[in-house]
Amino acid sequence: MQTLFLDNDGVGYNEDDIYKSLLAVGAGDCETLFLHSDIMLGIPAKGFRRREYVSTLYNAIDRLGVKNLIVPTFTYSFCNGEDYDVLNSPTSMGALNEFIRKLPDRYRTLDPLLSLSVPNNLKSQFIINLDKTNNGGGYSLGEDSGLDKLHKMGGVKFLFLGARLYDCFTYLHYVECMRDIPYRFNMPFTGKIIDEDGKFFYTTQYIHTACTGVSLREDERFENYLTEKGFLRKVRLGNSFVSTISETDAYREINNALSQDIYYFLNEPPMQMEHKYTYDSSKGRITHC
Q: What are phi and psi of 160, to 5 degrees?
């Protein structure tokens, strides 16, 4: 089998190696797999084009035989005044997620901020009722959001392929929203959505974002805790890692951390917080006033 990438020591990895790593962390032992990905697992081998590289990664996941594969297909263009086109707006979540989004028999949710791509058999479960009159609004985190629907499914695991939990775990902010933590607030964005039938409407969508003055913690502390306790199963793959955690364990442990210290996921308790912001599109979040 052809080598897909090499690590820094020159060791080559192919589709079988990726598949075995996925098995090692129990990625196939669930009904639904929610994928976070970073495809830079090493140095791409010569002869592979980008689409072939991504397709091989997908094949390794598909070989697991998991019934449902869900990927985040978030776009931040809506925050910058651009339309959200369900069929044509590319995701900012990486090449593998974009590849999966474009596969046949998949449905992308209408959420213009935190959309998800789900198999068509889950479409009815992930219909989001947005206010098409622009008199109210939907919520990208919290009750009836895509991640809330995921939480209520059961049998879900999160898979981090090359990605690290502390870099991309938006589910954490869903739990924070459900806890109504004091350092975030619901911020509105208004714009145009073009649905899968080409019809458009305007709506306001809210996202639970950090207040000005809040410094988010971005290190391995929580990931290391989950690994040490056996909740996060992790193995090295190339220059990176592959890991999994069940949704049940993630929800419980995030809640436990917040119960022990409401500011656990911050660098320090904020001295002052304001509901003022400017949007940093490069990071996909509000970072400063």
A: -110, 100
Q: How far apart are CA 39 and CA 54, in angstroms?
A: 8
Q: Name the 3-class secondary structure at 30.
A: coil
**Helix count (H) and strand count (E) of the chain?**
8, 16
Instruction: Assign 178 to helix, strand or coil.
Output: helix
Residues pairing with 77 in the sheet: none
Buried b (16+ CB within 10 A) or exposed e, 243-269: bbbbbebbbebbeebbeeeeeebbeee
Count CA atoms within 13 Å of residue 50 on its CB side: 6
- The pTM score is 0.90
Residue-wise pLDDT tens digits, 101-137: 999 999 999 999 999 999 999 999 998 776 554 445 6
190, 138 contact by CB (below 8 A): no
Exposed, middle or buried, 242 (CB in 10 Å: 0-12/13-18/19+)?
A: buried
Are the CB atoms for 146 and 129 separated by under 8 Å? Answer: no
